[in-house]
Amino acid sequence: MTIQLVLEMIAAAVLAAGFYTIIGVAPGTDETAVLAPVTLALVLLGVPPVVVLAFFVSAVVTLNLTDAVPVAVAGTPGGVMASPMVPYGLTLKQAGQSVIGIRKMASGAAIGTLVAVPVSLLLAGALAPLSEVITKYSAPVFFVGALFLALLSKNRLLSILAIFPFALLIEGLRYLYWGIHALPTDKTVTISFFLGITIGPMVFSIISLLNKEYRESLPKLGKKEITIVRSENQKGFPNPFRVLDRKELWATVSTSLAGCFTFFMSPVGMTVLFGEGIVSRVKDPIKKAKIALASMEGLAHSTYLAGLLIPLIALGVPLSPVAIGPANALFNAPPVFTLGRNMHHVLDMPGFIWATAIGSIVGLGLTYYVIMKYSGQICRFVFKYIPHEAILGLFIALVMMLSYMDGGWINVFGVLLVAIVSGALSRLGINFGVLFMTLYAAPWIVTVLF
């Protein structure tokens, strides 16, 4: 590891922390939609893998920390991961304790990161000897994973039924490209379809507005007023172990450990399951909200980081919702990375440790301090001066550009079709994890099951 690479990793981590602090505070931002295209662009630009990994880890830590801020100060989720925390954030907001809510969540995030990094590295080392066996059966594992996530979702039957036609859509587009010679038969489009799934809800919402009857049926709302409570200044660097009391601390550590061992599960699903379970017997609503916010935030961080590091280091195939979702470009980004040769094969263990340590330390050190001290001011600035539509438009445009690079104009419309279908399925209540798993299992489903 050279000094130049270390400096590049630090610079990338700082850049990710600054950029995703703004993105994370913006309400309604999907983690996958804002992480995956940028990561893919960095990989395709030829940025050293260890630098890309440091950037990604810093971005994950920053994004999952900052997207919880609007929960406390405005009662709206910054991203999908923060959605389960909204009711508890509103409880503290109504009690005039928004500042306390921010500090509980930020401290929970810090502890979740501190737990997840070493535990994930140890688990990755333990699972590494099984990598060849798991990789050999990755296709049916993806299919089983899709079924498993479908069974865990609220709309079980609909989710299971959607697997097979969605697989046919994916494979049908691929064979169309090959049949009209838009792509050579040795090239397979995967990453573009994956990006189409990530922007599905946004594209479907935009397309729906073109329907005049639907548009006229929508409620007409004026300007939404958001009240942001002014926070007192934080002196010095806050200690997360002192911000949380004993019950909150133990709850956060426990859920963070559980998140590491359930890395193959949906982070949102685990946040709801463990977070709600750990506060189910707490009667006082204020105490319940504080414990829930701290433990849920810690769990979100640990599940996310474990879902990235364990498949990346131990397996080399994306066998978790995080790996299939936002971290997909680290596993599969032709021509730089393929499922047979990706970051798992390029980096050694010291490289993973360096990148993870630098990314998590920089992301956590900068963002934790900034959020604890300036969360109210940042949220006020973003809500007032940065349109949410502009952020979404930026990432949709980036996805369209990458789709053109992947397969030309026909692939742009193919990705648009995938986005519309996945958006419609999402609107019906189908988990995105089911669609991501189906994307990777599609060749096996079509050739083996049909």
From TrEMBL:
<dbReference type="Pfam" id="PF01970">
    <property type="entry name" value="TctA"/>
</dbReference>
<protein>
    <recommendedName>
        <fullName>DUF112 domain-containing protein</fullName>
    </recommendedName>
</protein>
<feature type="transmembrane region" description="Helical">
    <location>
        <begin position="189"/>
        <end position="210"/>
    </location>
</feature>
<keyword id="KW-0812">Transmembrane</keyword>
<feature type="transmembrane region" description="Helical">
    <location>
        <begin position="157"/>
        <end position="177"/>
    </location>
</feature>
<dbReference type="InterPro" id="IPR002823">
    <property type="entry name" value="DUF112_TM"/>
</dbReference>
<feature type="transmembrane region" description="Helical">
    <location>
        <begin position="68"/>
        <end position="88"/>
    </location>
</feature>
<feature type="domain" description="DUF112">
    <location>
        <begin position="11"/>
        <end position="431"/>
    </location>
</feature>
<feature type="transmembrane region" description="Helical">
    <location>
        <begin position="383"/>
        <end position="402"/>
    </location>
</feature>
<feature type="transmembrane region" description="Helical">
    <location>
        <begin position="38"/>
        <end position="62"/>
    </location>
</feature>
<feature type="transmembrane region" description="Helical">
    <location>
        <begin position="304"/>
        <end position="331"/>
    </location>
</feature>
<feature type="transmembrane region" description="Helical">
    <location>
        <begin position="351"/>
        <end position="371"/>
    </location>
</feature>
<feature type="transmembrane region" description="Helical">
    <location>
        <begin position="6"/>
        <end position="26"/>
    </location>
</feature>
<keyword id="KW-0472">Membrane</keyword>
<keyword id="KW-1133">Transmembrane helix</keyword>
<feature type="transmembrane region" description="Helical">
    <location>
        <begin position="109"/>
        <end position="128"/>
    </location>
</feature>
<feature type="transmembrane region" description="Helical">
    <location>
        <begin position="134"/>
        <end position="152"/>
    </location>
</feature>
<feature type="transmembrane region" description="Helical">
    <location>
        <begin position="432"/>
        <end position="449"/>
    </location>
</feature>
<feature type="transmembrane region" description="Helical">
    <location>
        <begin position="408"/>
        <end position="425"/>
    </location>
</feature>
